[in-house]
Specification:
The complex is a heterodimer of chains A (178) and B (322). By secondary structure, chain A is α/β, with parallel strands linked by helices. Helices cover 36% and strands 21% of the residues of chain A. The chains are: A alpha/beta (178), B alpha+beta (322).
Chain lengths: 178, 322
């Protein structure tokens, strides 16, 4: 009887191993990261780039301040439509320590500087020729806006064009956290 | 069951699990047949150890159980790695992006890459888990994490730069890929040209309303193409340029790192590789090493007993033999 029970237990053990053993060969995972919305709470990455005036700059220079980082390009119609609202946001909130930072994606400094000058943009514009910020912040299109808190963590990531009211709304949680 | 059979089964089981550790990506190690072989081996070993501990195989049999215990540890490590370890995954992501690895409760940070690092093919991938130190996996490295081994496999990649007629950089986008703003092409698709399946990718230059299909040409194909002699036999890119209404603006072959001009653009592709992260189940290395050490200690102990026991056996046998 004991031998029979031992044999039965052994067979059951083998069957359990077979039943629960994961099968199959390699699986390819090409999932997207889910766009900028998924980045809330993550530390904000910084890459050394230059401003349109040629000075060295990067996001980490603004640590300790609330930053509204806007990824844009001059060829992008919604980016161009959004810029006056960003300029107003900068004028309204800069005295309260908020930085609005435009990060041009992949274009020459000369092109972005000419556009900013002609359209009265006074907030800092960085030139990211290798599009490092666009990749790191999971941009699925332009414009993309990222709100970064004083602690250097992302508060909100937004894909697409925003109105001034939507910008104020996105900024509010970061200001409340001060 | 005799001792020789049990030891032979031990060696086979240890050999299989060590082979899984050496080649964790081999399909065989992720099949139920492999698990069944190990499970049957474990049953054989348990049956022998049970008999030996009852004294049915003498003093040497009892010593042999230490080696059998080591073999069992190794065998169970192999089974557990399959049961608890993740399915084999190959994770391909654009440089500078993050991919979740749910099986490991971790995230893989695909490090940013420029033209130089694509050419060198030396970009690492960093694994981050809450409450743990970062684990960096470099080319030709293996890192063990829980019941998994992490390693990198190079995949074809090219870093593209686009300039307009006056030499100013232009934005590159990949509207159909996961990373919209990446100038790094990872060639996830294949197309048949001249009887060969060749990797291709597509990017856009929105400032000029251009869409550029890019085919990776391996070195053996460029020997018969019109490229500078010093670039013959080396990989190159084929750029096929359309506008965003689908009208063709021509085709050009771009050797690695050389500028070519087409449709009002200056294109440069730097060819190299970027890693794909491979996560496969693998035996826990510490348990594996401990099991093998126990097996060797048991064999040694048994041999010592065998050598020490031989004169005594002769002495006992001699009177009865006379």
């Amino acid at each position: 009887m004991r031998t029979f029970l031992a044999a039965a237990a052994a067979i059951v053990a083998v069957l359990v191993v077979i039943a629960f053993y994961p099968g199959g060969g390699p699986k390819l995972n090409l999932n997207a990261t889910g766009g900028p919305r998924m980045l809330a709470g993550a530390p904000a990455q910084s890459f050394p780039v230059k401003r349109i005036d040629g000075a060295a700059d990067g996001l980490d220079r603004y640590r300790g301040q609330v930053v509204v980082m806007n990824l844009w390009a001059t060829w992008c119609p919604p980016c161009r439509e959004e810029m006056p609202a960003l300029q107003k946001l900068y004028e309204e909130y800069h005295p309260r320590g908020v930085i609005v930072l435009g990060v041009d994606q992949g274009e020459a400094s000369r092109v972005a500087a000419k556009y900013a000058r002609e359209h009265g943009v006074t907030y800092p514009i960085l030139i990211d020729e290798d599009q490092q910020y666009g990749r790191a912040y999971a941009a699925v299109g332009l414009p993309t806006t990222i709100v970064i808190g004083r602690d250097g963590h992302i508060v909100k990531g937004i894909d697409g064009q925003l109105t001034l009211a939507q910008m104020r709304e996105a900024l509010a949680p970061a200001l409340r956290a001060q | 069951m005799n001792r020789v059979t049990a030891l032979a089964v031990s060696v086979v089981c240890i050999g299989l699990v060590v082979a899984q550790d050496v080649a964790p990506l081999a399909d065989f190690f992720h099949t139920w047949q492999y698990a069944t072989a190990l499970a049957l081996g474990a049953l054989v070993l348990i049956a022998y150890a049970n008999a030996a501990l009852k004294g049915q195989d003498g003093m040497l049999g009892k010593r042999c159980t230490l080696a059998i215990a080591g073999a069992l540890v190794v065998t169970l490590t192999g089974i557990v790695s399959g049961l608890l370890g993740p399915d084999t995954q190959r994770v391909t992501h654009a440089p500078g992006t993050v991919a979740p690895i749910p099986d490991l409760h971790a995230a893989a940070f695909f490090t940013a890459a420029d033209a130089q690092s694509i050419a060198a093919g030396n970009a690492p991938i960093v694994i981050r888990r809450p409450g743990h130190r970062d684990v960096e996996v470099g080319p030709n490295e293996r890192r063990f994490l829980q019941s998994s081994v992490l390693l990198l496999q190079p995949t074809h990649a090219a870093f593209v730069e686009v300039r307009d007629a006056s030499g100013d950089r232009l934005t590159v986008t990949q509207p159909t890929n996961a990373s919209f703003l990446s100038p790094v092409l990872l060639f996830p698709n294949e197309q048949e040209i001249a009887g060969k399946k060749l990797p291709f990718d597509t990017f856009a230059v929105p400032a000029l309303q251009r869409v550029v299909k890019t085919v990776y040409l391996p070195g053996e194909m460029t020997t018969s193409l019109r490229v500078p002699p010093s670039y013959a036999g080396k990989p190159a890119l084929l750029f096929a340029v359309d506008d965003d209404r689908g009208s063709s603006h021509g085709i050009v072959i771009a050797p690695d790192g050389l500028d070519v001009t087409i449709a009002g653009m200056r294109l440069r592709g730097t060819i190299g590789s970027y890693p794909t992260l491979v996560v496969a189940s693998a035996p826990e290395p510490i348990a594996l090493a401990a099991g093998v050490a126990l097996f060797l200690a048991g064999i040694t102990w048994m041999l010592i007993g065998f050598v020490a026991g031989r004169p005594a056996a002769l002495t006992v046998k001699s009177p009865s033999g006379s």
